[in-house]
Every structure is written in C-alpha cells, then in structure tokens.
C-alpha cells in the first residue's frame, strides 16, 4: 500500500509541476490574456519554490503595476536568461493562457488535497474532532488559494448611475458612433459590449463597411482593430488611404506638385491614425487572441471581423451551422468581456439574389441565423446597381450611386432604412438630404418577415 500511495503522490506532483510549467510558458507568451486569469491567482497559489511560480508571480506583479509586460522584463526581474524566457514564451502555444490556467487549477487542487490528507493525520493525532478538522481543512484550502472566487457583480451600481443621470437629464456618450450621420440620428453611438452584425451579398461592400467605420473612428481618435480574413493589411491600408484622400490608387501616381503633396499628406495622416489591420488566420482562437492583445496593448475601443463565415474552430466535429453558432456566441462574449463594440460582417445567402427585391432580411445570413439572435444590432447593405436594378418599387429611377442600409434590429429603433451613396473609392457615404424609413421609396416589410426555421436551439 505504501508503494501505491507514493506512486500516486509522485504522479499528482508531476502533473502539478508540469501544469505549472505550462502556465508559466503561456503567461510569458500571452501577456495580453493575463487579465483573464489575474483574479484566480491568489497569494497562496504561488507560494512555491518552483521556478514556474516565480515567473507567474513576476508576471502578476508587472501586470498589476503596468497592465503589461514582456518575457525579457520578467526574466531580468527574477535573474533568468532573457533568451530562455523568450524560448519559454513560444512553448505550448496550442493551449491558450485561460486553458492553461484551468489545467493548472485542476492539478493544483489535487496536489492540495493530498497535502490536506497528510495534515489530517496530524490533526487526528492531536485529538481534533471531525468538526474541528473540517474547519482546519477549509482554512488550509484558503491558505493554498483554493477558496471560491467571485469575479462578477449584479449590475446594481452601474444601473443606479444611469438612473440618477437620466433623472438629472444627463446623457451618456460613448466614443464609437456610426459613420453615417443618418444612422447617428437613430443610434447615436455603439455601447460597450454591443455586438453588431452586418450582412450583405458578396461584392456589395462588406469590407467597405468595415473600413468606413474604422476610418470614422480614427478621425475621432478612437483606437480600432480591423481583422480582415480575406485581404492583406497592406490592401486595407490602401483602401483607408483612398477613402481619406478621396483619390483612387494607381500604379502610376505622378501628377502636379499639388496633387502629389495631397497624396503624401493624406498618407501621413493615415499613418498616424489609431487603427491596426491584421490577418491572423481563420482560427477563432487566433482572431480572439489578436483582438485581446490589441485591447491590452493599445486600449482599442472597437473591433471588426471581415468576415464571420471565414472563421472555424479547429477540431470541431459538429455541423457547420452549429460551428458558426459557437463562433457567433464567442464573439458576443468577447464584446461583453472587453466591454467594447465588436462588429462582425456576414455573408448573405445566395437565395436572396434570386428574389424579386434582391434585399436581404433579418434572417438571411448564410449558413447560420444565430448571428441575428446574438446581435444587439443587425444591419443589411443594399446597392441596386450591383443587381443592375435601375428603378425602385414605384418605378422611380434610383439616384446615381444610390445605396441604403436596412436596420433590421436595434435598440429602441425598430425597422429603419438609412439612405446613403456608394462608390468604390469612398465606400458608403452620406448624401445631402438624408432620410430614414419610411421614405418616399416604400419597402414591402413582408420581405423582411423572420424565417426561424434555421435557428439553432441553445
């Protein structure tokens, strides 16, 4: 029996130390994710002579002081070779930091329970009663950092502030506002935690929608993250420059001195704008980690993914519609976690192109209608010229470059139609006389009647 007990202790100890080592590696590799595990790292958890404990404790100290750290800084603070810390930061990358923390807590808990079992023998020898031993066990678990952790609140304080402000006539304003002024009349700003889903057929202008919003944010000093999964960051920079300069990019940009000064000045302004463009690959974890890292590094207040159906969950074995449902739910959770608006662009199913109006409705998102359920705001883009449609429902010719955005779901908005214009340089932009639904170009609301047949029960 003694041999078996020693073997169990050795196995548990090995698992605990291995999990601690992985946790240390991921702490060095994912400083942008450290905020997600910080509440779970209590002093007793790190009361160990292991090098991994020193690394994690140093990461916690740097994060508490500066909200960030680097592997090199951690190494210097604990007398480790910076090159070795950098090498550790690249290990076990298939596991995220939160996953490493969950694994560590599991094996650490087992290790602690074995320690408590050993303590119980001495308590028995001291003549403690069962009730007294239970008290000592609770105290020991607390000393080891295993007590229940409460990291949420019930929202009463936040609502009380909003209620008192409303009573006093004070209105809150958030930094991210829609780029079309007509939409701002309906939705003045996007709130922290909003999940905005924008749908359109391929080629209608989803990418322009993303870049239009990012440019508007940048001009208002709002740091933003642009995830484009079907384009390069270089091409995104070109589109932002075109929108800002209102000039098409050509292989030969030679012109007058005034023109070339305008080109360079516009680029100088774009370079200083507080947005970054990324293409981290289609893995959901990579996309979310990129957004978290940019949030941690630059304090971004907006993120957009172009586009959602390009993402996947490695190893997922369910149907594609269920996988996309999980992706949508993860993006919604990320918006709530970081307390920033997140916009996800989505492809409209091709059946819409076969309808008479060619207009997408609320539940016309390709492969998964759950995007609509998760979203706080749903918007559909429409350009009649894309479908070679020249007149509206009453036979009146559309204005040149006509486009509109259909708000299918939104806070206190209901159904609305935002008229705008579109060209391939500026994307979507305002018109002199802006209208909202209902307009003199009526739209048959029956075409937007929800089709719930594809909804996935959660």
State the order of secondary-structure elements, H for helix, E for strand.
HHHHHHHHEHEHHEHEHEHEEEE
CATH C-level label of the largest domain? Alpha Beta
Q: Return the CATH topology of the largest domain.
A: Rossmann fold
What percentage of residues falls in helices of 4 or more residues? 40-55%
What CATH architecture of the largest domain do you see?
Answer: 3-Layer(aba) Sandwich
Query: Structural class given helices, strands, pairing?
Result: alpha/beta
End-to-end Cα distance: 48 Å
Number of domains: 2
How are the strands ordered across the major sheet?
Answer: 3-2-4-5-1-6-7-8-9
The total of beta strands comes to: 9
Cα radius of gyration in angstroms: 27 Å
Broad shape: elongated
Report strand %: 5-15%
Number of helices: 14
Oligomeric assembly = single chain
* Largest sheet features: 9 strands, mixed
Estimate the mean pLDDT confidence.
83
* Poorly predicted sequence stretches spanning 5 or more consecutive residues: 148-152, 434-458
- The CATH homologous superfamily of the largest domain is termed P-loop containing nucleotide triphosphate hydrolases
Structural key phrases:
Rossmann fold, 9 strands, disordered C terminus, 458 residues, 14 helices, elongated, DNAb Helicase, Chain A, 9-stranded mixed sheet, alpha/beta
What features would you describe in this structure?
- By secondary structure, this protein is α/β, with parallel strands linked by helices.
- The chain has two domains: 2-143, DNAb Helicase, Chain A; 181-454, P-loop containing nucleotide triphosphate hydrolases (Rossmann fold, 3-Layer(aba) Sandwich).
- 44% of the residues lie in helices and 11% in strands.
- It contains 14 helices and nine strands.
- It has helices spanning 2-29, 51-66, 71-78, 82-89, 97-125, 130-143, 156-167, 181-186, 206-219, 233-245, 257-271, 284-298, 320-338, 370-374, and strands at 195-200, 224-228, 275-278, 302-306, 342-347, 377-382, 402-409, 416-423, 427-429.
- It has a nine-stranded mixed beta sheet with strand order 3-2-4-5-1-6-7-8-9, with helices on both faces.
- Strand 7 (402-409) and strand 8 form a beta hairpin.
- The radius of gyration is 27 Å and the shape is elongated.
- The chain starts with a helix and ends in a 29-residue tail after the last strand.
């Amino acid at each position: 029996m003694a041999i078996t007990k020693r073997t169990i202790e050795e196995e548990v100890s090995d698992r605990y130390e291995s999990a601690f080592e992985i946790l240390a590696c991921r702490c060095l590799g994912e400083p942008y994710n450290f905020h997600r595990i910080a509440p779970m790292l209590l002093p007793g958890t790190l009361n160990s002579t292991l090098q991994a404990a020193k690394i994690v404790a140093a990461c916690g100290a740097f994060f508490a002081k500066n909200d960030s750290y680097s592997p090199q800084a951690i190494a210097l603070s604990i007398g480790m070779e910076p090159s070795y810390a950098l090498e550790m930061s690249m290990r076990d990358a298939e596991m995220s930091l939160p996953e490493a923390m969950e694994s560590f807590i599991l094996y650490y808990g087992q290790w602690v329970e074995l320690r408590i079992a050993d303590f119980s023998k001495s308590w028995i020898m001291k003549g403690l009663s069962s009730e007294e031993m239970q008290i000592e066990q609770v105290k020991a678990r607390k000393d080891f950092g295993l007590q229940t952790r409460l990291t949420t609140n019930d929202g009463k304080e936040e609502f009380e502030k909003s209620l008192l402000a409303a009573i006093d006539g004070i209105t809150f304003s958030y930094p991210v506002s829609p780029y079309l002024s007509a939409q701002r009349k309906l939705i003045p700003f996007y709130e922290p935690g909003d999940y905005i889903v924008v749908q359109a057929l391929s080629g209608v202008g989803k990418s322009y929608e993303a870049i239009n919003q990012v440019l508007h944010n940048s001009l208002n000093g709002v740091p933003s993250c642009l995830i484009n999964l079907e384009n390069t960051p270089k091409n995104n920079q070109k589109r932002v420059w075109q929108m800002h300069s209102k000039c098409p990019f050509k292989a030969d940009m030679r012109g007058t001195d005034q023109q070339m000064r305008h080109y360079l000045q516009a680029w100088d302004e774009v370079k200083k704008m507080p947005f970054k463009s990324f293409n981290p690959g289609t893995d959901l974890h990579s996309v979310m980690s990129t957004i978290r890292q940019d949030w941690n590094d630059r304090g971004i207040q907006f993120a957009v993914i172009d586009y959602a159906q390009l993402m996947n969950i490695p190893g997922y074995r369910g149907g594609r519609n269920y996988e996309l449902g999980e992706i949508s739910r993860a993006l919604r959770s990320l918006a709530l976690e970081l307390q920033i608006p997140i916009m996800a662009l989505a492809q409209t199913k091709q059946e819409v192109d076969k309808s008479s109006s060619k207009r997408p409705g609320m539940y016309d998102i390709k492969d998964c209608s759950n995007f609509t359920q998760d979203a706080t705001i749903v918007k559909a883009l429409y350009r009649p010229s894309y479908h070679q449609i020249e007149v509206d429902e009453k036979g009146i010719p559309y204005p040149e470059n006509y486009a509109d955005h259909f708000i299918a779901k939104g806070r206190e908005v209901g159904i609305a139609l935002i008229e705008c214009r579109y060209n391939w340089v500026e994307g979507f932009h305002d018109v002199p006389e802006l209208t909202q639904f209902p307009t003199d170009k009526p739209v048959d609301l029956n075409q937007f009647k929800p089709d719930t047949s594809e909804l996935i029960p959660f």
